[in-house]
């Protein structure tokens, strides 16, 4: 099968995406987001001046992906603090916006903790709000650093698992700069392989129903000049059967204590295919995505999203629950839908989990608990 030509040569890097930033315009502080519901056709910023606006952006997936949700949650609490609002209430609202990505609550709680600890040391509201913002900024920087370390560990792992030739990697959903303070998780590993001249093809699952793969990963792959092709999710089986996939690389929204991985719906079928075809299935996620408080996959709360995402073409914008529908029908009128946002891959189907602290796998002999003990980022429940 012929590879698509890279659109820009290795070595020429595009300007970094401004995915999420803190701003202090005259009207008051705000969290400014690149609106991911508008990509790839429009690069439009969305200004969230208060917590409800940010919660709305999280629900509609204007901002999304586990690590970025953690950063958004952190800045959201800093925003509440700067506005003199109840920080505990902000944590509740933010954490409740999407239940599966553990990073969201982690970021929000961590910044609230910084606010409370400053207050406990005698800081007035303004100073405590400053401490909250500093913590949110620290979280943002740490995520960028974690991203670079995951890319390094991940590319080493690929070189060990796939010693021969350039890799053909398959990925699902979007795990690049659009979900991170840095270059992302799984996508960052593929990007590094590309920069090292070891990426032959990135297969991009379109990722029904909201097309995070086709809209967002393809956008990032094109910006970075990766050789890539988009496929419908249901085409993955025939691609494995044709021997065209050397490894699967995905991210995670929550990793349970037993190593079960919650990620974008469609990940589990890929893991089954990978097992059947003897292809490594590699998960790339920061330790802040590991939740020791969730014992196993059955305990993960999987977000169920609006039926209209399945029964209507709402592209490019998902319709928020309860809002007026504006899409063209894609299913018979009145059709019910099953629309879980995530699925669970059991640990026996996972070849390795790459974190910023190292690689968990039977090969390295390193366990999840051991890596988490090295990290300061594991979720405080
Ligand atoms: C590093 S991102 C890992 C996951 O958050 C990603 O794969 C994913 O499932 C995102 O889902 P989304 O519903 O778009 O927020």
TrEMBL record:
The active site is at 253 (proton donor). Keywords: Amino-acid biosynthesis, Isomerase, Methionine biosynthesis. Pathway: Amino-acid biosynthesis; L-methionine biosynthesis via salvage pathway; L-methionine from S-methyl-5-thio-alpha-D-ribose 1-phosphate: step 1/6. It is an enzyme of class 5 (isomerase). GO terms for molecular function: S-methyl-5-thioribose-1-phosphate isomerase activity. Its EC number is 5.3.1.23. The keyword Isomerase applies. It comes from the Bacteria. InterPro entries: IF-2B-related, IF-M1Pi, IF_2B-like_C, Initiation_fac_2B_a/b/d, M1Pi_N, NagB/RpiA_transferase-like. The record marks 173 as: Transition state stabilizer. It catalyses: 5-(methylsulfanyl)-alpha-D-ribose 1-phosphate = 5-(methylsulfanyl)-D-ribulose 1-phosphate. Substrate binds at residues 64-66, 98, 212, 263-264. Belongs to the EIF-2B alpha/beta/delta subunits family. MtnA subfamily. Catalyzes the interconversion of methylthioribose-1-phosphate (MTR-1-P) into methylthioribulose-1-phosphate (MTRu-1-P). This is Methylthioribose-1-phosphate isomerase. It comes from Streptomyces halstedii.
